[in-house]
Amino acid sequence: MLRKPDSTLTARCLGPIDLGDKALTQAQLEKLWITDRERLLTCIRRHLALRDFYADRDAGLEGGK
Q1: pLDDT means per 10 residues in the chain (65 residues)?
Q2: pTM of the model
Q3: Burial readout 35-57 (b: 16 or more C-beta within 10 A, e: otherwise)
Q4: 32: burial class by Cβ within 10 Å (0-12, 13-18, 19+)?
Q5: Looking at residue 64, what DSSP letter applies?
Q6: C-alpha dihedral sign at 50, 51, 52, 57
């Protein structure tokens, strides 16, 4: 039976922050930008970890590890 990745690796990534329809201050924009960057980096790291999981698993199936 094939190993399955941990559910944290297959969780859906959070999208960008909804800015709404009102004017925002510079401080609000900066805080939202930081949150968006954190979400993006979390998503990228998760996808890289998932890629590595499958590469490791498949190499084991092929006898590479």
Answers
A1: 92 94 96 97 97 94 74
A2: 0.78
A3: eeeeeeeeeeebeeebeebeeee
A4: middle
A5: -
A6: positive
* Alpha carbon separation from 17 to 7, 10, 48 (Å, rounded): 24, 21, 23
Residue 27 amino acid letter: A
CB–CB of 46/13 below 8 Å?
A: yes
Q: What pLDDT was estimated at residue 63?
A: 81
- What is the rounded end-to-end Cα distance, in angstroms, of the chain? 17
Q: In whole angstroms, give the CA distance from residue 58 to residue 9.
A: 17
Q: Which helix (H) or strand (E) holds 51?
A: helix 26-61
